[in-house]
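Try this one yourself first.
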């Protein structure tokens, strides 16, 4: 089902860049203005200048952060700051990190993946997207014709065929890249160009579906860019005009053609020795997108929650809101100590209220569903398709309304959930914590739904629990809602049903690094 290809990735030239930790960044969507400025100052070749450039006073249609990114990209290629692999490659990538005082390693495959419309069921989303974010990414792709950061995706390989093949390929060799970033995460990269290994990986992946974990906006942007390029090619053929290759604004260069004045080719150009038919030399690079693929059964796969901050809602009276919530939720007040010393106790209590969830929701790969606490005779069982539901899983949330007032909210009528949730949605979707929160609290009692939610004017998403408290106390936000992690099994089941979860339902930790490998289009 999925088509995976090696790419002729661009990487920082070690002869010019000795410290990779000075030029890589987290993904653009977690970088605020202060962090952006820090990365600008860190190194003149920091990837921030390409992936998430500054807006400057006086910017215009002809001079803006997108055109500056394209100019910098072209200059870096000419000066060989970024250099292409000698041959198309797959990349084995390891991230070593700490979560909950435990050190973990997550492994992934960096490669090109053929773009497929969602309706084909080959590559599946799980979250809604916001139009304005896709418009920003499309402008950057038009200007630079490159993927500066990979899309984080998942595949299901219980037998670990892909992992085994990659591990055998690198054996006990030292990684081609090995460094530690500013947050203490270690990054290791092996470049794999052996045609036989590439064939084995392609064959193993050919029967699998891919689930987007993080990067929905960039994937949909790539689809839009692909459609634009197809339209231009059709128009060019109809007009019987030769295709022009002028730097980064034209169509993809043919195999081996040097784009602009830099001695580089697009990432799908050459075929490695002994590589199979799935290396698409005859195809255009814009029909593919760079991804990092992680096995669902990888022991380093960790999911953390993304919390909600609410603002700009008229006439919110916390006391009245609590009274309304008591109609459907068990409400427990939890006084927050002035020094916040008991906040972790509150989060632990939230986790306890959510027990009966899928076993091992936040890490260590796929496990069977198990009821950790069972309120009735039902059992959870294995995922079972569109109408599968875990009747014993409670839905619990935390709410902060300021003035050291924390509340634990536990939904009371779980077995009749399908009667109050949106019709036409599967029970798997209806049973998501984030669906219950958005439908039965944020939409029903705060009125944030549909177009209001899509405009992203009233809800902000955060992973910082302490920061959420501070945001409410400062007056910038009126309420904070805390969630438990969404189990990977639920994400896959909903995506497999062809449905999308509410935006920012998951946080696959840690984020992928930006700037390790760049993919030319």
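Now uncover the answer:
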């Amino acid at each position: 089902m999925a088509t995976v290809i090696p790419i002729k990735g661009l990487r920082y030239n070690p002869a010019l860049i000795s410290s990779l930790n000075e030029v890589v960044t987290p993904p653009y969507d977690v970088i605020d203005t202060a962090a952006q400025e820090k990365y600008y100052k860190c190194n003149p070749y920091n990837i921030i200048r390409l992936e998430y450039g500054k807006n400057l006073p006086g910017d215009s249609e002809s001079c803006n952060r997108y055109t500056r990114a394209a100019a910098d990209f072209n200059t870096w290629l000419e000066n060989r700051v970024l250099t292409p692999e000698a041959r198309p490659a797959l990349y084995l990538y390891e991230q070593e990190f700490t979560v909950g005082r435990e050190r973990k390693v997550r492994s992934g495959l960096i490669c090109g993946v053929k773009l497929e419309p969602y309706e084909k069921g080959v590559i599946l989303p799980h979250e809604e997207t916001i139009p304005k974010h896709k418009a920003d990414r499309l402008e950057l792709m038009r200007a630079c014709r490159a993927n500066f950061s990979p899309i984080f995706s998942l595949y299901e390989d219980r037998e670990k065929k892909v992992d085994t093949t990659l591990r055998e390929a690198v054996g006990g060799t030292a990684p081609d890249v090995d460094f530690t970033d500013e947050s203490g995460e270690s990054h290791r990269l092996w470049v794999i160009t052996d045609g036989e290994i590439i064939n084995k990986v392609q064959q193993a992946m050919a029967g699998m579906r891919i689930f987007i974990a993080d990067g929905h906006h960039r994937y949909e942007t790539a689809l839009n860019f692909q459609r634009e390029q197809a339209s231009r090619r059709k128009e060019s053929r109809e007009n019987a005009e030769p295709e022009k290759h002028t730097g980064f604004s034209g169509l993809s260069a043919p195999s081996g053609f040097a784009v602009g004045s830099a001695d580089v080719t697009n990432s799908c150009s050459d075929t490695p020795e002994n590589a199979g038919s799935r290396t698409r030399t005859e195809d255009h690079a814009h029909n593919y997108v760079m991804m990092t693929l992680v096995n669902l059964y990888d022991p380093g796969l960790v999911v953390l929650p993304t919390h909600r901050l609410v603002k700009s809602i008229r006439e919110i009276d916390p006391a009245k809101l609590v009274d309304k919530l008591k109609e459907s939720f068990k409400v427990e007040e939890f006084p927050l100590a002035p020094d916040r010393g008991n906040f972790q106790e509150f989060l632990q209590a939230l986790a306890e209220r959510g027990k009966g969830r899928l076993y091992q929701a936040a890490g260590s790969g796929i496990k069977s569903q198990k009821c950790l606490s069972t309120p009735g005779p039902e059992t959870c069982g294995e995922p079972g398709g569109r109408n599968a539901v875990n009747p014993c899983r409670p839905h619990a949330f935390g709410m902060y309304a300021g003035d050291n007032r924390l509340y634990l909210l536990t939904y009371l009528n779980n077995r009749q959930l399908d009667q109050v949730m949106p019709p036409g949605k599967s029970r798997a979707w209806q049973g998501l914590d984030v669906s219950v929160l958005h439908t039965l609290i944020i939409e029903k009692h705060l009125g944030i739904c549909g177009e209001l939610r899509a405009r992203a004017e009233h809800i902000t998403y955060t992973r910082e629990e302490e920061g959420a408290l501070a945001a409410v106390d400062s007056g910038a936000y009126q309420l904070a809602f805390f969630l438990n992690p969404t189990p990977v099994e639920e994400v896959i089941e909903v995506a497999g049903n062809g449905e999308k979860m509410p935006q920012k339902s998951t946080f696959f930790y840690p984020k992928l690094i930006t700037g390790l490998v760049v993919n030319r289009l």
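Discussion: Confidence is low (pLDDT under 50) at residues 243-265, 268-281, 357-389. The chain is about 30% helix and 20% strand.
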